[in-house]
Structure formats: C-alpha cells, structure tokens
Amino acid sequence: MRSLAALLIQFSFASGLKFLLYNPDNPGASKSHVILVDKLGDLLVNAGHEVVTYMPYVNEVSFANFTRKSDLLLYKVSMDVPKFAQNTNIWLRDFEVTEIAAWMKQLGDVATRSCKIQLEDEALMQRLRDENFDFGLVEYFDPCGVGIFHKIGLKRYSMVYSTQIHLTHARYVGIPTPTSFVPENTWTSASKMTFMQRVWNFLANVIVEPYVISSHISGFNEIFNPMGKTVYDLMAEGGYIFINTDEFVDFPKPISHKVVNIGGIGMKKLLSIPQRLPAEYQKVFDTAKKGVVLISFGSLARTVDIPMKSRKALFEAFRHFPEINFVVKYEDKDHKPLELPSNVFLAEWLPQPAILGEIFC
C-alpha cells in the first residue's frame, strides 16, 4: 500500500493527467473486475486527474449504472453470443482442465470478436486518439485494452489484476516463478509442498496453465498480429502492474519493482468513515450473542445457484451455531428456502462497508 501511495503522489505532482480506463462489459464478466477498475478511476479523480472510463458492451449494458466519478464512454458491440458464455453456473462445473479451457475459450472468443470490431472501427480509434490520453489502465481478463492503447499511440499504461497474477503472465513480464515453492494459484494451494505436489506444480506451470491461458488469449494474438505484437509483448511493454492482493498474506514469491499490491484499496478510508447500519441489520447485530458472519461468494458464484441439496446443507450447518448470526447475500428474494434457520438472514443487496465497519469496530 505504501508503494501505491508513493505512486499516487507521483501522479499528483503532474497536474491534470488524462487517464483512459478500458473497462469492458462482456457476457460472463465478473462485477468484481469492473468494480476494481472503477475504484482506481475514483482514486485518480480524487487526486485531481481527468479520467475517462471506456466501456464497450456486447448487446446489452449490465455495468454502466455503477456509481463512478469518471466520465463514461459507452460503445455498443452487436453480435451473437453463445448460450454457454451467457449462462454459466459455477456451482455445476467439475472444473476439469479441459472443461475450464473450453469455458475460457468461449469467454475469450466473445471478447476477441468484440475487440476486433472495436479495432476495425476507425472512427472510434480516431476519437480515442484525439483525446490525447496520458496514461491507460486495463484489467488483464480482457487484454483488448492493450491493443487499443497501442493502436491509438498511447505508450504509457499499466495492467490491473483483480486476482493474483497468473505465473504464466508473471514470466512474460520478467518475474521469476520458481515452481519448487511458488504455487500456481489456480491449481495448487500450498507453499510447503511434498515432492509429488512439486511435480504437479511444475506440470501445472509449464503445461496445464499455459494451455488454459492460451485457450483464452490466442484469439487476441491473431488480431494483434497485424500490429506486429502479441498480447504478452504489449503486457510487457506496460508500466506498473497493479495486483489486488496483500503482500503480507500472499504466498512468498519473487517480486518486481513493477508490482504494486493494492489489496483492500480504498477500504481503510471507507471504514474510517462512520457508516449508518440500516435498522434491519442493526437488529441482526443486536441479537447475535457471539458475533455476525457475512457470506458473499461474488457475482459469478451466486448463492441462489448452489444446487438445492448443497444449499440446504449449508444453511443446516449454520443452524448448529445458534449464538452466531449469518448474513448471506442471496440474489433472488422471491425464491428463498422454505425452512430457513432463525439465525440466517438473506438479502439481495448488502451494505458491506457498513456491515464490515460494524464487525471490525
């Protein structure tokens, strides 16, 4: 976080920089990716810079109504989207390597086709070029932004990771990835590994992970080829790499001067501001004898999509802790479980800052 503060101080000395944030609204995209880029945009606006969030969307807008301080530039991409990419229930997937690769390829194909349409729209490219942006930000899951930056002549930009950086990506930007103790976060979870775990970690790093990543970005390489670049070329030419993790709780690993950890960005200031807890949630806290647990699995892994048998087992487990109240994000208020334990409270939307502020007070 000190590195980020220093970086923002550097930006603050350059008054009136103009930033372009590539923040697409694609089918299958996660809200957390969009929200993180928006949050960075808000911080830059607060520092006195001009920020434009460029949001191409496929067929329908999903994330345009999010609260953001930057100027919003929408661009509609009309095209057919495979049903597989539109309707994905994470809880029903086996997450075999081939299935993950197929899923990533479909999401990548949608993003690639959208990217090709954007890059071929000379009026759009000229409009962005005429804005004379000073700096660009793009989230890694849809790297079309680096291609757009290159085409409009924007040479200063950075990558943003809403998760840990994949080791395949890390190698291409010059970060060592010794597989003897650095786990590939998608496939392994231990920093102290047995011999066989190290063997699997090695195979995951040199075979499995590149295969899955390639299934997602290979299409981008095809459309960037006329520019004489690959996705990894353009990623490596970027500046800082913003990673949404906290280095003090992450796995020990080699790092680079280009890496800026931004885990929990904005939360310290947000939690320092008194938040008014809505009455219904205040009652939850007042009736809890041993505390409150907040449960939210994110926008892709929706609680309402958990298979009924597993969902019932989850709520029944909460019943065994009657002195603790559980607040659960549940995305469909019209289809709540019939037999809900008295210490479980469901809501489609949660005032997370207020709840977290109450928990950590």
From TrEMBL:
It catalyses: glucuronate acceptor + UDP-alpha-D-glucuronate = acceptor beta-D-glucuronoside + UDP + H(+). Residues 1-16 form the signal peptide. Keywords: Glycosyltransferase, Signal, Transferase. Pfam families: UDPGT. Its EC number is 2.4.1.17. InterPro entries: UDP-glycosyltransferase (IPR050271), UDP_glucos_trans (IPR002213). It comes from the Eukaryota. It is an enzyme of class 2 (transferase). GO terms for molecular function: glucuronosyltransferase activity. Gene3D superfamilies: Glycogen Phosphorylase B (3.40.50.2000). Belongs to the UDP-glycosyltransferase family. This is glucuronosyltransferase.
